[in-house]
Write a structure and sequence with these properties.
Layout lengths: L3 E4 L6 E2 L5 E6 L5 E6 L10 E4 L6 H13 L5 E8 L5 E7 L2 H5 L4 E8 L7 H13 L4 H9 E6 L4 H6 L24 H14 L4 E12 L5 E5 L5 H17 L9 E2 L9 H8 L5 E8 L2 E2 L8 E2 L2 H18 L13 E9 L6 E9 L2 H12 L1
Parallel strand pairs: 8-9, 8-10, 10-13, 11-12
Antiparallel strand pairs: 1-2, 1-5, 3-4, 6-7, 7-9, 11-13, 14-15, 16-17
Length: about 375
């Protein structure tokens, strides 16, 4: 793990060289581990800033959402879902073609949240990547907007982000442990989101199919997912389908790091609580992405993440819904050839390994498009 730095004359965040970063047990700190780094201040008049990872501030999000609003896109709606304790905005984006909202047919709905842990800034880049792709003119995005309603809360803990907290809210709560009974006074943003999800889950015209909460991980590499454990074997297999498909689309996503568990300490998380609340046609995941980097199937060394690559992971998450809903034939670049992926999933807390095979459409044009999306 290497911190990032920028200065007045070099305003783009850059990682420090790993050779200048040291991690060791320190006798001066009761033999606890300490990370330190050497840095040469080479320009006397510059102001230097350091960060654990690329920052993504509340202010940056507000500027980004305001710029989206100014585009007056007919398929994008921004709403104020609520206010934080310190009266900061809790924004809700709805991305879909307006016919979907008015239609009497059952509506497929995907709900995505990020930044419940304020220090996990890569989650915001992934979330922006999802949004950028879904509002784009890409043919895949157009098909998705025709068939799916996307609800996105990009910053669940705006006070924590604004104050520079790593894990907690203004009042010291880890909001991701309070989904079971959030207080409208102490956890207003969580309370508002939970109320909305519960309301939608009770609407017979809405099929709430996915809840994905985006986080960052400080020790593991790559992007990967946590899912829930179920007694029903078929549901276990079905829950594995989306991460498998994502693995086909995102070179930095690791299916082997993906696991399904029911640890007691995770009982108050969004994934666990909503996994118990919603019916068995809904799938709840935590999407994790490394603070540092990723391994590819061909490389032998970790590739450090950049802001752009985090956003590409978000684009590939969005794109994967096309495969999941088997809408590939609605875009002209897809061919009918089939490819199979089969890999064991370890279930943490259960003593068995589950394997399943899922069809993924693949063709030369499709591969070309995937490469284009990842390198866009």
């Amino acid at each position: 793990m290497s911190p990032v730095v920028k200065s007045t004359s070099r305003p783009k965040w850059q990682r420090l060289p790993p050779k200048n970063v040291y991690y060791y047990r320190c006798p001066d700190h009761r033999r606890n581990y300490v990370m330190s780094f050497a840095f040469c201040f080479d320009r006397e008049d510059d102001v230097y800033q350091f960060a654990y990872c690329y920052p993504y501030t509340y202010t940056r999000l507000q500027h980004y959402l305001a710029s989206l609003e100014r585009r007056n896109l007919p398929y994008l709606k921004r709403e104020l879902l609520g206010l934080s304790v310190q009266q900061r905005r809790l924004d809700l984006l709805t991305i879909t073609n307006s016919e979907n909202v008015r239609s009497e047919k059952e509506k497929k709905l995907v709900f995505l949240t990020a930044r419940v842990h304020p220090g996990e800034s890569p989650a915001s880049f992934v979330c922006q990547g999802v949004i950028d792709f879904l509002v784009s003119h890409h043919p895949v995005a157009q098909v998705l907007r025709d068939h799916v309603i996307f609800k996105i809360v990009p910053m669940l803990n705006p006070d924590g982000v604004y104050l520079g907290n790593y894990r907690c809210s203004l009042m010291g709560f880890d909001l991701n442990r309070h989904w079971q009974d959030p207080s409208p006074w102490a956890h207003p943003t969580l309370h508002a989101v939970k109320q909305l999800i519960v309301q939608m889950s009770q609407d017979p015209s809405v099929s709430l199919e996915f809840y994905i909460d985006v986080h960052s991980h400080s020790t593991m590499l790559n992007g990967f997912m946590y899912g829930n454990v179920f007694e029903d074997e078929e549901r276990v297999h079905r829950q594995a389908v989306f991460p498998r498909l994502l693995c086909q689309n995102a070179p930095d996503f690791s299916f082997s790091n993906t696991s399904f568990n029911r640890d007691k300490v995770k009982a108050g998380t969004g994934r666990r609580f909503l996994g118990g609340l919603l019916d068995d046609t809904s799938y709840c995941y935590t999407l994790e992405v490394s603070f540092y980097g990723y391994m590819t199937s061909v490389g032998t060394a970790a590739v450090p993440y950049s802001e752009e690559i985090y956003m590409k992971l978000g684009k590939n998450v969005a794109r994967t819904f096309l495969d999941y809903y088997k809408l590939n034939n609605l875009t002209k670049d897809y061919g009918p050839a089939l490819m199979h992926c089969a890999e064991g999933i370890s279930q943490v807390g259960k003593s068995k390994t589950v394997s399943s095979t899922c069809p993924v459409r693949e063709s030369g044009d499709r591969k070309k498009e995937k490469d284009q999306i990842f390198s866009h």
